[in-house]
Fold:
Amino acid sequence: MIELKNINVQFSGRDILKDVSETFQPGEIIGLVAPNGTGKSTLMNVIMNYVKPNSGKVVVQEKYQYTSKKNEVKIHQLVSMMPEQSDLYNHLSGKEHLRIYCSMWNSNPKLIDQTIKDLGMDSYVKKRTGTYSLGMRQRLCFAMQIVSDTPIMLMDEVMNGLDPNNVELISSILLKKKEEGKIIIVASHLLENLEKISDRVFLFKDAQLINANEITSGYGKREITTVRVKDLTDAIKEMFYQEFPNTEIRSLSSGISLVDVSNYDLEQLARIVIFFKEHHITDFSYGNVTLNDLYSMYYLENVKR
Structure:
């Protein structure tokens, strides 16, 4: 378990993290979403003690805090952060990097060959990393964290530079690690993928950590909560409000309007179909609010009524 207690970080008088408190449990994948510069990387650096908060504390496994160098060493045996590509040594091979990480965390050496196989790295892992492509370097960085085998893993933009096949491959490995009981915290701009693999997703707003499930009633439920309509004109909206008063519609910058039907019964949902058909609107669908929608609501222009 890892617990954040009233974390506050200010840079140049500006709040980056404000009263952030949250607990992450074993067997969870936690997604972090926000534009660059709004706190995702800072939060991870606080967890690693690379950035010291102005106030608050990080508690690992209910007993360890960054109160001494000895405790920091102990925590870093339990918590690892995926290396960046700039951390790679171009004159060393990929396999040498994996051996270094395995040795640093005293993990099972058998993980090296298994991870190489799982990630399809056999053809290049013995070559110097200076010869690697962007995607190969990213897979190696991910592999290095996997072989560290720590109970808590932090990953900032793990999918950066990967093609769709490798995104799916790494996602499947993350889900296996979750099943092993690891806590995995992932910051990513690939929102559809993050929504798919995460147990909980948090957004950053005004220096605070916001659970996506608390933003709107239409997110994260296994039932119809939203009608997505493309290019809904103001005139049609007004007629819609006359027939369906007290209904909330959010118009996103993408041209999509989200109609909140979370409290509608089947008869009312059927009436909406009839309404759209009568007004020659065919580009609509039923479903839920997506993480992409939440991102637009929070960080891009949108209109709410």
